[in-house]
Amino acid sequence: MNDRLIGLVPAAGKGMRLNLPYPKELYPIIRDNRYKPLAQFVVENLIASGAKHIVFVINETKHQLVGYFGSGKRFGCRFSYVVQDYDNNQSESTSPGLANALDSAYHLIKEKTVLFGMADTIMQPQNVFSNLLGAAQSQDQVILGLFKVDRPEKFGMVEYDSNWRVKQIIDKPKKTDLKYAWGCIAWRPQFSEFMHSCINEENISDFALIMNNAIRQGLSFRSLIPPGGSYADLGTYEEIIDLERKNRAK
């Protein structure tokens, strides 16, 4: 992977499941008697791995998120914000809006190596993206960071071979023997171009389908299970309560 890194964090969801009076990305996580909003965890992942510029994809209501993160100066980074337009075709996807959110930042991410993480997740190790970059070989266009999950029906499950080559992504399967889901991704400019073409020329908005099409057309996808890795997706109160219960048990 080249040195032209850019972080990409989609945060355009409405947060309907939590129904908070503020963006879910600012949900308070308390550690060591200090407040940290949920989205700051992935920001710190990105900064720890060398990203100096991070793009948030937001909707028109996320003023408080912009107010908290600002320009990025106090984080030693530069933040940009892109507003995602609503697409009526998103309901046809198993991950509605995700690919369109990522492509909304195309004008900023093209020609760069993208480090993509979700704003409502907590990942370890902190330098998880450095692990992905370190695993990349010269022919690889995409590296998926894999994490073991207990509820495969909620995630993009990954089938890979003995050489860690990704064979396919099965999004939110009702039943599967696969144990590992992708939780974060690093990709080279070739994949940004491929995704942009799928969305704008072929009207494909399903992110898993775009990735599987890329694999079928010869783009090299590698997978990596980060050493000591853990992953928490905090999109519902049930998942937040589960995380806090595990934290108290430490």
How would you characterize the overall build of this protein?
The chain is of the alpha/beta class. The protein has a single domain, classed as Spore Coat Polysaccharide Biosynthesis Protein SpsA, Chain A (Alpha-Beta Complex), CATH 3.90.550. Helices cover 29% and strands 28% of the residues. It has helices spanning 38-48, 63-69, 98-104, 106-109, 128-135, 189-201, 207-216, 237-248, and strands spanning 5-11, 28-31, 34-37, 53-58, 78-83, 113-117, 121-124, 142-148, 156-160, 166-171, 180-187, 221-224, 230-233. The strands form four sheets. It has a seven-stranded mixed sheet, sandwiched between helices. It has a two-stranded antiparallel ribbon with strand order 2-3. Strands 7-13 form a two-stranded antiparallel ribbon. Helix 6 (189-201) crosses helix 7. The mean pLDDT is 89.
Layout of helices and strands, plus pairs?
Blueprint: E1 5-11, E2 28-31, E3 34-37, H1 38-48, E4 53-58, H2 63-69, E5 78-83, H3 98-104, H4 106-109, E6 113-117, E7 121-124, H5 128-135, E8 142-148, E9 156-160, E10 166-171, E11 180-187, H6 189-201, H7 207-216, E12 221-224, E13 230-233, H8 237-248
Parallel strand pairs: 1-4, 1-6, 4-5, 8-12
Antiparallel strand pairs: 2-3, 6-11, 7-13, 8-11, 9-10
Helix pairs in contact: 6-7
Structure summary:
The protein is α/β, with parallel strands linked by helices and 250 residues long. Helices cover 29% and strands 28% of the residues. Strand 4 (53-58), helix 2 and strand 5 (78-83) form a beta-alpha-beta unit.
